[in-house]
Amino acid sequence: MILVTGGAGFIGSNFVLDWLQASDEPVVNLDKLTYAGNLENLVTLQDDVRHHFVQGDLGDRALVERLLTEHRPRAVINFAAESHVDRSIHGPEDFIQTNIVGTFRLLEAVRAYWSSLPAGDKANFRFLHVSTDEVYGTLSKDAPPFTETNPYEPNSPYAASKAASDHLVRAWHHTYGLPVLTTNCSNNYGPYHFPEKLIPLMIVNALAGMPLPVYGDGLQVRDWLYVKDHCSAIRRVLEAGQPGETYNIGGWNEKPNIEIVHRVCDLLDELHPKADGGSYRALITHVQDRPGHDRRYAIDARKIERDLGWKPAETFETGIRKTVQWYLDHPQWVQHVQSGSYRDWVSKQYGAVVA
Predict the structure, then answer these.
(1) Which of 36, 259, 290, 339 is the most exposed place for a label (fewest CB within 10 A)?
(2) Contact, 107 vs 177, CB < 8 A?
(3) Is the dihedral of CA 322, 328, 333, 337 positive or negative?
């Protein structure tokens, strides 16, 4: 048995689905079901006895302690987080509460549970904390990619809250001996991605004939990681990672945002042509850049390949084609997540240009 927090979100739900496809080991899935948590992501597990879903907050220590005592997991994997930079700029308090206070309370509940285990179970237990490359700050154009030893220099409320959670996890290992593992990933994309992030926003807006808002000049560079590759890396770290170690997970796909938008448009031109024969590129609209926008992230993923034998299976070209096709094949999922509150948020963030 494993316990997953945030398992109805984008990365967490993909992890749960892939885990149960590859293994019969049951999953207890704890998710608060905020705007980005979606049980429709897990509809194929509705009658699967291996999947036990619990709606709740990772910061509810009494609930977490009850789940740990009742289900006796051999590992806890923490995906639960507020994760959108733009939302953290407008409302940072939720990020402090979930990413810092919530992680602290989760760690304390897990520490108490782990301390009570028999010696063998205690030695085999793992707490895996899923984090981001944004904790490292920004890179200049020619700087080498982030390694696991880069200093933390977070530049947004989101990144600062995740950096703080990483520090807590490290401290609970060094102070209390809790067997932790930390992963810092690059930008994920793929199925079930809530359409406030770049790639799904471009897809759903293009299909609706709406403007495609691109911040500033669109030359911000990110390393893109297909979500199912990320999930396979987490499984490998859980299986063979050394307690106390950090593993950077990247896709070796550094690309500027505008190139990503162009590729999405070109794939839609091919797979879902516009009735008038025009290109979706005509919908691209540059909008004011967001405050403190990091210029470049890049992950050096050599450590996880060297130490654990993992590397991504997808190239960006194969992954983005699968992603665009998934959104074309799941219009009802897209329709259901685009509630009134979602439309209000997009309008607030990008202005009247997308209203």
Answers:
(1) 339
(2) no
(3) positive
* Strand bridging mode 180-185 / 246-249: parallel
Q: Active-site positions?
A: 133-134, 158
Domain ranges of the chain: 2-193+226-253+296-315
According to CATH, the superfamily of the domain at 2-193+226-253+296-315 is NAD(P)-binding Rossmann-like Domain (3.40.50.720)
CA distance 68 to 4: 11
Q: Which two tokens stand for residue 168?
A: 């807590």
CB 31, CB 330: distance < 8 Å:
no
Phi and psi at residue 83, in whole multiples of 5°? -130, 5
Residue 137: name the closest of 119, 121, 151 by CA: 151
Compute the distance between CA of residue 301 and CA of residue 311 in angstroms, rounded to an integer: 8
Taking the CB of residue 334, how many other CB atoms lie within 10 A of it? 16
CA distance linking residue 59 with residue 224, whole number of Å: 30
Instruction: Tell me the CA distances in angstroms from 164 to 25, 31, 104, one per residue in order.
Output: 31, 21, 10
Nearest Cα residue to 7 out of 24, 27, 21, 26: 27
Each residue's pLDDT tens digit in the chain (355 positions)? 999 999 999 999 999 999 999 999 999 999 998 877 889 999 999 999 999 999 999 999 999 999 999 999 999 999 998 876 777 787 899 899 999 999 999 999 999 999 999 999 999 999 999 999 999 999 999 999 999 999 999 999 999 999 999 999 999 999 999 999 999 999 999 999 988 889 999 999 999 999 999 999 999 999 999 999 999 999 999 999 999 999 999 999 999 999 999 999 999 999 999 999 999 999 999 999 878 788 999 999 999 999 999 999 999 999 999 999 999 999 999 988 876 454 454 455 445 444 3
Distance, CA of 58 to CA of 81 (rounded, Å): 9
Cα 41 to Cα 21: distance, rounded to the nearest angstrom: 14
- How far apart are alpha carbons 130 and 79 in whole angstroms? 6
Q: Tell which residue, 340, 248, 331, 351, has the closest CA to residue 290.
A: 351
